[in-house]
Amino acid sequence: DAGVTQSPTHLIKTRGQQVTLRCSPKSGHDTVSWYQQALGQGPQFIFQYYEEEERQRGNFPDRFSGHQFPNYSSELNVNALLLGDSALYLCASSFQRDQPQHFGDGTRLSIL
Amino acid sequence: AQTVTQSQPEMSVQEAETVTLSCTYDTSESNYYLFWYKQPPSRQMILVIRQEAYKQQNATENRFSVNFQKAAKSFSLKISDSQLGDTAMYFCAFIFRGAIQGAQKLVFGQGTRLTINP
Q1: Residue B104 at interface with chain A, using a CB cutoff of 8 Å
Q2: Which of A83, A97, A108, B73 is the most exposed place for a label (fewest CB within 10 A)?
Q3: Are the beta carbons of B58 and B43 closer than 8 angstroms?
Q4: Helix, strand, or coil here: B84?
């Protein structure tokens, strides 16, 4: 039973570029949430997708956008990258309102 | 605003000792979940234990147990017989249900870096 998988593992970009991160939820899960974790900090909620719609959003600018596909996988897109976007991006999945959320290994994004 | 506070940035104990990590939270909700997650250097966030707010009984999972004080909004984690593999960042988290049905987000504390020494 595969858990939450994220790709790529690491990514290096320069300021102003755009990036797409991908997440496949745990088998049987239909809800995907994205979190940003800066070095030495706790994760911060970006947004959550369910039934291909954004259900809730944290305090992140419109440069952060997402998508959920019919197979429940999800993408996180970040435009016009800033140095401050350097972080570990975590994807978590769950089944609707059930708990808990299961996390992937994350994508480490570095902005030069 | 929903907040989670972990007042101990770092802790260090000897192997086999018992250690308690502190967490307080702020919410106006009456029904919610609380969690402790562990994040080793491998980065994956691993669920350690969860507590449902409407349950009076404190949750336990083998060597891990919580002291849930709802009125005080306190949720501490006790690790008994600590092992070297318990070395990790520990995050306390609260589930917040959004205005849209089904929407929910985890609100995390800043974390406590726990080191178990041989």
Answers
A1: yes
A2: A83
A3: no
A4: helix
